[in-house]
Amino acid sequence: MPNSSQDTYDVVVIGAGPVGENVADRVVAGGLTAAIVEHELVGGECSYWACMPTKALLRDAAALRAARALPAAGHAVSGGLDPAKVLARRDRFTSEWNDSGQVEWLNQAGITLVRGHGRITGTRAVTVTHTDGTTTTVQARHAVVIATGSSAHLPPIRGLADVAPWTNREAAAVRTIPNRLAIIGGGVVGSEMATAFSDLGAQVTLVSQTRLLPGVEPFAGEQVTDALRTAGVSLHLNVEATEVGRDDSGAVHLTLSDGTTVEADEVLVATGRTPNTKDLGLDHLGLTPGDWLHVDDNLAVLDDTGTPLQDSWLYAAGDVNRRALLTHHGKYQARALGDAIAARARGDKLDLSPWGRHAVTADERATTQVIFTDPEVAAVGLSAEGATAAGLKIRIVDYDLGAVSGAALHADNYRGQVRMIVDEDRDVLIGFTAVGPDVAELLHAATVAIVGEVPLDRLWHAVPAYPTMSELWLRLLETDGRDR
Ligand SMILES: Cc1cc2nc3c(=O)[nH]c(=O)nc-3n(C[C@H](O)[C@H](O)[C@H](O)COP(=O)(O)OP(=O)(O)OC[C@H]3O[C@@H](n4cnc5c(N)ncnc54)[C@H](O)[C@@H]3O)c2cc1C
Ligand SMILES: NC(=O)c1ccc[n+]([C@@H]2O[C@H](COP(=O)([O-])OP(=O)(O)OC[C@H]3O[C@@H](n4cnc5c(N)ncnc54)[C@H](O)[C@@H]3O)[C@@H](O)[C@H]2O)c1
After folding, report:
1. For a tag on the chain, would you pick the N or C end, based on fewer CB atoms within 10 A?
2. 305 phi and psi, to 5 degrees?
3. C-alpha 432: how far from its chain's center?
4. What stretches pass through the bilayer (predicted)?
5. Is 80 within a domain?
6. Are residues 212 and 264 in the same domain?
7. Which residues form ligand 2's pocket by a CB distance below 6 Å?
């Protein structure tokens, strides 16, 4: 085998996570050739260590809780969860960390996979180092897309790096449920994993320097906080872990800023993400390795002065550009970007106007997220705080979801809450948050209303079926009032 070789494609994508795969798919669908470079598993973090395995860890307990919220169904499920079966189902969802299925998908989509670590080594040039040390330089005719994602951020807490802390990877791929798990971080990962490991039988202690789930409406975080406490999770909120150590018996000890100490068998760090840009050749372009990539509305990478690189040949999509660290938003960016690159190559005009084919307007106006805690949290668009900070004149409309007939029927003692944020000037919905059991599937109606900018007057004509939880819409509108 030669030590180095060179190939040319229309587009080269670095990173075969969900975002890279979708960019490559769209450019090939647009008539171009594409190579995708991957140094680990095709499918990325989401498939093997994030979305899929963590949701598989959470699902059985959620179904069990749903059954227990009804007297006869609850009576029928007398046993507890079998963690081994939960882990076996999780293994199926990760294909046992084997990416052959996803490689097959790339093949049938007409995308060339180049295995190895990619680094930008020149204009439109990516040099791939294979595991045997040989290199291939893949040259792009039109564009290079960075879709290298993110990794767990380890905060500079004294002693933390020396105790072999878990990140999302060890949590998602867990083989033995620890008796005691300490979690640092009360964001989405921390809250979901506190739910999962508590359900799976661990005694969980969570430490967060903020309230729980600071990214969503406070009432949603409060309901999750109450439920975790009721489930026996020990929560230390608005305090920091200042020191971590492991003793000779293997136990981990955390010292908190309020003087409390916590002992556990393992510690999971869930304090946000860091971009996978450290070893990507960014220095060749005058960019700083290890930084998030700043992009313009075309997703073109910007230099320190906010200017796209010469000829705009370099793009970044997904986690690495920090716009929305969510698989579905990364894939949304990928569809717009892939189509834009293909259109540019054909000499077609782009439509980058708000909601245009090549624009990523929803990243700013309609970011959707479901947090799979118990209760679930589903949110789209702006929170009250976000809308006020954006200088918008808003109305906040709240409703007790438990008072909706469909919810009362869904589960005994249903507890939940919904909020809609209305833009007073345009009289359209700009934000929606729901917290409660099984609210995930209620989200898309709100997303459609926000993206469609449906006037509230017209929403009165979207008649929710009785008795479903979707009647929350009627109740929100009635609470808001029709004669304003
Ligand atoms: C615990 C957890 C749970 C999550 N759950 C959800 C969820 O339920 N829903 C949701 O929407 N989002 C969820 N997310 C977020 C989601 O995982 C990310 O938004 C998503 O994975 C981003 O996709 P990506 O393609 O940008 O990056 P990644 O999935 O990180 O993929 C990037 C790929 O690039 C490769 N790569 C990196 N550098 C190079 C290089 N130099 N050369 C070659 N290859 C390289 C990597 O190996 C990787 O395969 C979760 C995140 C975590 C941590
Ligand atoms: N269901 C989903 O959609 C889902 C699930 C998991 C993760 N994700 C995505 O993955 C990304 C990463 O999630 P995450 O939970 O790691 O990050 P995050 O940004 O959601 O939360 C990090 C939390 O850690 C806290 N923190 C930071 N430093 C700390 C310290 N030194 N001590 C104690 N607490 C500290 C922060 O205050 C914050 O509450 C998020 O953007 C999220 O959207 C999505």
Report:
1. N
2. -90, 0
3. 18
4. none
5. no
6. yes
7. 155, 157, 184-190, 192, 207-210, 214-215, 240-241, 270-273, 325-326, 369-372
Same domain, 219 and 113: no
* pTM above threshold 0.90: yes
* Alpha carbons 396 and 387: distance in angstroms, whole number: 10
User: How much distance in Å is there from the Cα of 425 to the middle of ligand 1?
Assistant: 38
ipTM rounded to 2 decimals: 0.97
Q: For residues 325 and 397, state if they share a domain.
A: no
Structure tokens at 341: 């690159």
Of all atoms in ligand 1, which is nearest to the CA of residue 150? 30
453 & 398 share domain: yes
**Which parts are annotated binding residues?**
55, 118, 148-150, 185-192, 272, 319
One pLDDT digit (tens) per residue for the chain, 484 residues: 447 777 999 999 999 999 999 999 999 999 999 999 999 999 999 999 999 999 999 999 999 999 999 999 999 998 899 999 999 999 999 999 999 999 999 999 999 999 999 999 999 999 999 999 999 999 999 999 999 999 999 999 999 999 999 999 999 999 999 999 999 999 999 999 999 999 999 999 999 999 999 999 999 999 999 999 999 999 999 999 999 999 999 999 999 999 999 999 999 999 999 999 999 999 989 999 999 999 998 999 999 889 988 788 999 999 999 999 999 999 999 999 999 999 999 999 999 999 999 999 999 999 999 999 999 999 999 999 999 999 999 999 999 999 999 999 999 999 999 999 999 999 999 999 999 999 999 999 999 999 999 999 999 999 999 999 999 999 999 999 998 7
Task: Based on the fold, state whether residues 25 and 146 are members of the same structural domain.
Answer: yes
- CA 31/CA 207 separation, integer angstroms: 51
CATH number at residue 130: 3.50.50.60
CA 381 to chain centre: 15
Domain hosting 246: range is: 160-271
168 lines ligand 1 (CB under 6 A): yes
User: Tokens 């769209």 appear where?
Assistant: 26
DSSP at 403: G
State whether 320 and 214 are in the same domain: no
Whether 294 and 421 map to the same domain: the answer is no
Burial per residue of 49-64, b for 16 or more beta-carbon CB atoms within 10 angstroms, e otherwise: bbbbbbbbbbbbbbeb
Query: 147 CA distance to ligand 1 centroid (A)?
Result: 9
Q: Is 322 in the pocket of ligand 1 (CB under 6 A)?
A: no
